[in-house]
Amino acid sequence: MIFILLMQFLWKYIDDLAGKGLEINILAELMFYVSASLVPLALPLAILMASLMTMGSMGENYELTAMKASGISLQRIVAPLALFCVVLSLFGFLFSNYILPISNLKMNSLIWDITNQKPELNLREGIFYNGIDGYSIRIGKKDFKTKLLTKIMIYDQKEGNGDIKVIVADSGHMEVTSDKKYLMVRLYNGYNYEEMNRSSVKKPAHRDKFSKQEIRIPLNGLNLTRTDESLFKQNYKMMSIRQLKKYSDSLQNDVGAKTNQLYKSLMHSQILRYRPSTIKNKINTDSLNLDSLKRLNFDTLYNKVQAQQKSSMVGDALTAARESKTYIMSAQVNIEDITRRMRKYQIEWWRKFTLSGACLIFFFIGAPLGAIIRKGGLGMPVVISVLFFVLYYIISISGEKIAREGFVNPGIGMWLSGMVLLAAGIFLTQKATRESTILNIDTYINFFKKFSNLLFKKTQ
Question: Helix, strand, or coil here: 393?
Answer without folding.
Answer: helix
